[in-house]
């Protein structure tokens, strides 16, 4: 297994290709969350939140899965260099926090949680994911 990650690190196109997959996953993840959470925050009240959730949430989850797989592969190609990077560790902590917030939101009723706390959770989610994106970009520069 370690040899395959060393080969990944040595191949000139592998890491950039994984980076592209990571960005595509991020687009699906953040895009799905953005439209769903904007609806929860009060935008486009004419759109049924349940119908929107059936479209947006699976796209966000698929995007998260793509990010997780591509991110893990990129990490595995140079773990010593990446683990000492504070931006990566902050990013991972924020992703865990986003997951806890999402679990709490869905435990409270998910789509039916269209109350004040649900709106605050959506704002928190958007803020966390923007911070995750910022930390992801900073990994290359810190």
Q: Gist?
A:
It contains six helices and no strands. It is mainly alpha-helical.
Bin the helical content: over 70%
N- and C-termini, Cα separation: 28 Å
Query: What's the SSE pattern?
Result: HHHHHH
- How many β-strand stretches? 0
Helix and strand content put the structural class at mainly alpha
Mean pLDDT: 91
Q: Quick one: biggest sheet? A: none
Task: Report on this structure.
With 142 residues, the chain is mostly helical. The chain is built from 6 helices and no strands. It has helices at residues 2-10, 14-40, 49-77, 79-83, 86-107, 116-138. Helix 1 (2-10) crosses helix 3 and helix 5 (86-107) packs antiparallel against helix 6. It is elongated. The two termini are 28 Å apart. The model has no long low-confidence stretch (mean pLDDT 91).
Keywords:
0% strand; 142 residues; single chain; mainly alpha
Helix/strand layout:
Layout: H1 2-10, H2 14-40, H3 49-77, H4 79-83, H5 86-107, H6 116-138
Helix pairs in contact: 1-3, 2-3, 2-6, 5-6
């Amino acid at each position: 297994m370690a040899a395959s990650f060393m080969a990944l690190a040595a191949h000139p196109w592998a890491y950039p290709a994984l980076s592209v997959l990571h960005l595509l996953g991020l687009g699906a993840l953040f895009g799905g969350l953005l439209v769903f959470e904007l609806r929860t925050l009060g935008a486009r009240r004419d759109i049924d939140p349940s119908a929107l959730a059936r479209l947006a949430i699976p796209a966000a989850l698929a995007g998260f899965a793509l990010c997780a797989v591509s991110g893990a592969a990129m990490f595995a190609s140079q773990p010593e260099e990446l683990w000492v990077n504070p931006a990566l560790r902050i990013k991972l902590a924020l992703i865990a926090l986003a997951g806890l917030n999402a679990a709490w939101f869905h435990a409270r009723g998910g789509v039916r949680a269209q109350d004040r706390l649900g709106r605050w959770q959506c704002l928190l989610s958007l803020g966390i994911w923007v911070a995750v994106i910022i930390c992801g970009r900073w990994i290359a520069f810190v």
